[in-house]
Amino acid sequence: MVPDLGFHVLFRFVLLLLQSVQEKVEEETVVAELMYTFFLNHNDVLLSKIRAVTHMAEWEQHFCSDVEQDPRTRGRAYYANKATNETRWLEPEEYHSFQLQLDVDLFGRDVSREEILDVLKPLRYLTRGESARECKEWIDARDVLYKIFKNISEHPNEGKYRRLTKKVGGSFVEKVWSKRFARECVLACGFTESADAVELILDTERPEMNAKMLAKCRVLLQRIESAIRARDAHVRAAKESEDGDSGVNQRHLAPNKKCSHCKSEIESGARRLWTTDPLAPRGQYSFKCSQCATNYILCETCWDKKVNGEQIHREHSSFEHLPPIETRHNTSTRGFGRGPWGNFAASSIGNARERLRQRTGL
Predict the structure, then answer these.
(1) pTM value?
(2) Contact predicate 313/261, CB 8 Å
(3) What are the helix (H) ranges across 110-246?
(4) Where do the domains of the chain lie?
C-alpha cells in the first residue's frame, strides 16, 4: 500500500501531469493508463482518483484579460470543455466538486471539508464578476490577496507578514478591507480585527490551530494563484504582439478574425480602406454569439447556412451582427449611428450642421 503522505504527493503529481498536457484528450488517457498500470498492485483508491482526473481534464479554467474591451469580462473566469468546445461563465458542478476533493486530499490533515467550503465561499462570490464593478473589485483584491497569502505561506513565523495595518488610503483598506467578499476571505482564514490592524495570531500552545489557519491561507493561495498565472500570461502575450507600429498601422495591419465554424478569415475591410488598394477584398459582415464566454464568430457563408436550417452552433443562441469597417473616421465595430461620415452617434447633428454652415455660408 502507498503511504498516506505518498498518496497525496502522487495524486498531486498525476493532476499536474494531466493538466500540463493541452493538445489532445487521448494523450491524457495514455498518461492515466500508464499510471494505472504502475499502481495496479498498490492502491485502489488512487486508481479511482486517476480515472476522475482523466474525466475532469476535459474541463479547463481560464481567465479573461484585465484589459478586455468589455469591462464586464475583465479578469473574469470562464470554463472550457476540450471535448465539446463548450464554454461557460458559471463553474461546472463536476469541476467544482473535483477541485474541492483535491483541496480535501491536499489539506485534509489540518482542515475539514466543511471548513474548506467556508473559506472558498466568499472567494466564489468575489470571482463571479456579474458586472463591471464586481470585475474591478476582483482584479483589485486578487493582487493584494495573493501577496498577503503568499507572504504568510512562505514566512509563517514572521509576524510582519501576518499583521495588516488598516492605513487610510492604503491598498489593503481600499482594495480588500472595504470590499465585502474580499474582507470575508481574510476573516475566514482566522484573522482578527483590532483598532488599527488585522492580524493572524498564532498561539505557540495550540499548534493544531496554527496549522489549520495556515492551511486555510494556502487553500486560498492556490486558487488565486491560477488567476495570477493567467494575468501574467496575458501580459506576456501583449508584449510579444507589440511591433512598435503606430495605432493606425496596428489597426489596419491587424490580422482578420476567423470563422469559428469553417476557420476561414473574415475580411474586416480595414486593409482596403487604409491602403486604398482597389484589389484588396471588400469587408464582410460577421456574426458574434452573445451567449458564449469566448468569441464565437460566424462568417457570412456559415451564417447563411445556419439561417437555412443547418445545425451550426447552438439552436437558440442569439447573434450580434457586426458590419465591416467602411470609414476612417471614428472606425467602430458598432452598427448604431453609422453613416457615410462615420459614427456620429456620440456627437450632435446640430453642431455638425453649424460647422457646415460656417464653412459654406449656407
Answers:
(1) 0.56
(2) yes
(3) 113-127, 132-154, 159-162, 171-172, 180-188, 207-241
(4) 58-239, 256-360
Provide the β-strand partners of residue 320: 288
Which element (helix H / strand E) includes 165?
Answer: strand 163-165
Phi/psi region, residue 263 (left: phi>0; alpha: psi -120 to 50; beta: rest), is left
Residue range 266-321, pLDDT digits in tens: 888 877 777 776 677 788 888 888 888 778 899 988 988 888 888 888 777 788 88
Average pLDDT, the chain: 77
Asked whether 217 and 233 are in contact (CB, 8 A), the reply is no
Which numeric CATH code is attached to 58-239? 1.20.58.2190
Name the packing angle between helices 4-20 and 44-56 (round to 10°).
20
Spatial separation of the C-alpha atoms in residues 299 and 259, rounded to whole Å: 5
Reported as a single tens digit per residue, the pLDDT across 46-89 is: 545 555 555 555 788 899 999 888 888 899 999 988 888 888 88
Instruction: Please state, in angstroms and rounded to a whole number, the distance separating the CA atoms of residues 166 and 151.
Output: 18
264, three cell numbers: 476561414
CA dist., res. 285 & res. 301, Å (int): 10
Q: What would the pLDDT profile of 213-253 be if each residue is shown by its tens digit? A: 999 999 999 999 999 999 998 888 887 766 444 444 455 55
Task: Report d(CA 328, CA 325) in Å as an integer.
Answer: 8
Does residue 332 contact residue 251 with C-beta atoms inside 8 Å? no
